[in-house]
Amino acid sequence: KVNAWLGLEPGSKLSLGSLYFVKVNQGLSASEGTFTIEYPAASLFMTVIEPKVTGSYPANGTDLGSAEWKKSGQGNYISTVESSFNHPIVFSSVYDKVVLSPLHKDQDTQEDVQPNVNPGYEGTSLSITYNFKPSTEYTVTLKAGGTDLYGQKIAQDFTTKFTTAPLDPRLNLA
After folding, report:
1. Contact call for residues 47 and 16 (beta carbons, < 8 A)
2. Could you tell me the pLDDT band of residue 33, with boundaries at 50, 70 and 90?
3. Residue 1 pLDDT exceeds 60
4. Which residue of 12, 97, 136, 151 is surrounded by the most CB atoms within 10 Å?
5. Are 114 and 172 in contact (CB under 8 A)?
6. Nearest to residue 28, comparing CAs of 3, 6, 43, 45?
7. CA distance 128 to 87
């Protein structure tokens, strides 16, 4: 058994999201030593794609009070919005890039109440938790600049809007 490795260095930068085929012909010899490739070999690989936000829950334009939403059986009220990525991102690079609007004020301090932002499953999503008010149109923006595990930056802002459901009518008699 021979303990050897073969290193390849491309002559130019490889394109993102591209498929490459590498073939090593029989008889290729080493630059150092006496090793020679005994059998031809081949490999197929793909480079990573640019990181981006691929979607959100609820989806852009969703009205949580609409008849269509109610028919879906997903409930009228939410406390968390999810944003999904096409591959794992570095959470610390996107945490401060989440912008929720409108924010409500803390009753005691009169300061804006910020959402809680947490990493989701295997770095491919973010959970944005907030005390969403009824009958309100919210906008969530993830600003460009966050990075994936390979150091590539998210190039574009991602914005999604949704409207929360109104409160259900209630009457309490004492």
Report:
1. yes
2. confident
3. no
4. 97
5. no
6. 6
7. 18
